[in-house]
Design brief:
Blueprint lengths: L1 E6 L1 H4 E2 L2 E2 L1 H17 L1 E6 L2 H8 L8 H24 L5 E6 L7 H16 L3 E6 L5 H6 L2 H11 L4 E6 L20 E2 L4 H4 L13 H14 L3 E6 L4 H7 L8 E3 L1
Parallel strand pairs: 1-4, 1-7, 4-6, 5-6, 7-9, 8-10
Antiparallel strand pairs: 2-3, 9-10
This protein binds adenosine-5'-diphosphate.
C-alpha cells in the first residue's frame, strides 16, 4: 500500500519549539510503516521551526512568514534526515504548490520522481513551497496539499496526524458532549463552508481544511484517516486493521 502521512505543526511544536522528541516518535512510527508499505510524508512546521531560529521575525506579516518558512524548512529537513538515518533510511525533499497539480507536466514529473524515490526505499518529505504560494501560507495548511499528493501520486490512503484524535459531531473544545465519528462517508456542504478553526498559533487549517481534504479524496474513491499525532499507537492500530481504532475514517 502507498500511504501518505501528513503531520500538523501543532504536533511538531512544543512550547514554541520544534520538538525533537515528537519528531523522533513520528520517525519511529514511519520507519515501522516503511517496513511493509511505501511511505510519503507531508510535513508542516517550517514557519514555527524558523521562528525558533530567528525569533526576531514575527509570524504576523506575510514577508516574515515567508522568510521563516524558508529558514525553518532547512531546520525541519535536517532533523528528519538525522532521525531517519538512525534507521538507515534516506529522505528526499520536495516543495510543491497546489498549482503544480493543475499542470499535468508538473505533476507527472513530480510523480516520476516520487516513484523512483519509493522504488529505492527513500522517504519523500513534502511541504508547501511557501515562498511562492503566499495565500496558502496565510490561509491554508498542508491538509489539501496532502490530499492532492495522495490522489496524484498514486496513494491508497492519507493519514492526517493532528492535535485532535478525530472528527467530532461538534467542536470538542467547545462542547464537552461532542462525540467522535468513527466512519464518515459524506460531508454536508455547510460543514465544508465553515470558517477555519485552528487551535494553535502556528496552525492555520482547523477542521475545515481536513474535511475539504477528505471530501476531495472520497470523491476520487480514496480513503483518509484522521487521528492524533500525539499518540501514534492509534494510527498504528488502524493500519494494523484493528476494529477498535481511535480516529475517524473517511471513505
Ligand atoms: P493541525 O495543526 O493538527 O492541523 P488544527 O488545530 O489546524 O490542527 O485543527 C484541528 C482543530 O480543529 C481541533 O483541535 C479543534 O480545535 C478544531 N475543531 C473544530 N471543530 C471540530 C470538530 N468537529 N472535530 C474535531 N476538531 C474540531
Amino acid at each position: 500500500m502507498r500511504v501518505v502521512v501528513k503531520v500538523g505543526s501543532s504536533v511538531l511544536i512544543d512550547n514554541d519549539k520544534l520538538s525533537v522528541e515528537r519528531i523522533g516518535k513520528l520517525v519511529d512510527f514511519l520507519q515501522d510503516l516503511h517496513q511493509n508499505h511505501e511511505v510519503i510524508l507531508v510535513s508542516s512546521g517550517a514557519v514555527a521551526a524558523g521562528h525558533t531560529v530567528v525569533p526576531t521575525l514575527s509570524n504576523k506579516t506575510t514577508a516574515d512568514k515567508q522568510a521563516l518558512a524558508a529558514v525553518g524548512q532547512t531546520v525541519l529537513i535536517r532533523k528528519y534526515r538525522k532521525k531517519f538515518e538512525e534507521h538507515n533510511i534516506h529522505v528526499a525533499q520536495l516543495l510543491l504548490t497546489k498549482d503544480d497539480f493543475q499542470s499535468f507536466a508538473h505533476s507527472e514529473n513530480a510523480k516520476t520522481a516520487i516513484n523512483t524515490l519509493l522504488e529505492n526505499k527513500i522517504v519523500p518529505i513534502i511541504n508547501e513551497n511557501d515562498c511562492v504560494v503566499v495565500d496558502e501560507l496565510l490561509r491554508g495548511d498542508n491538509d489539501f496539499l496532502s490530499a492532492q499528493v495522495t490522489e496524484y501520486f498514486g496513494g491508497d490512503l492519507l493519514i492526517i496526524l493532528s492535535d485532535i484524535d478525530g472528527y467530532y459531531d461538534k467542536n470538542p473544545r467547545e462542547f464537552s458532549d461532542a462525540k467522535i465519528l468513527k466512519v464518515v462517508s459524506e460531508i454536508p456542504k455547510e460543514e465544508l463552508e465553515q470558517e477555519n478553526t485552528p487551535n494553535f498559533e502556528f496552525a492555520t487549517g482547523g477542521i475545515v481544511t481536513k474535511l475539504k481534504a477528505a471530501d476531495f479524496l472520497m470523491k476520487n474513491g480514496k480513503k483518509m484517516f484522521l487521528t492524533t499525532g500525539f499518540e501514534l499507537s492509534h494510527a498504528k492500530d488502524f493500519i494494523d486493521g484493528q476494529e477498535n481504532y481511535k480516529g475517524t475514517l473517511f471513505c
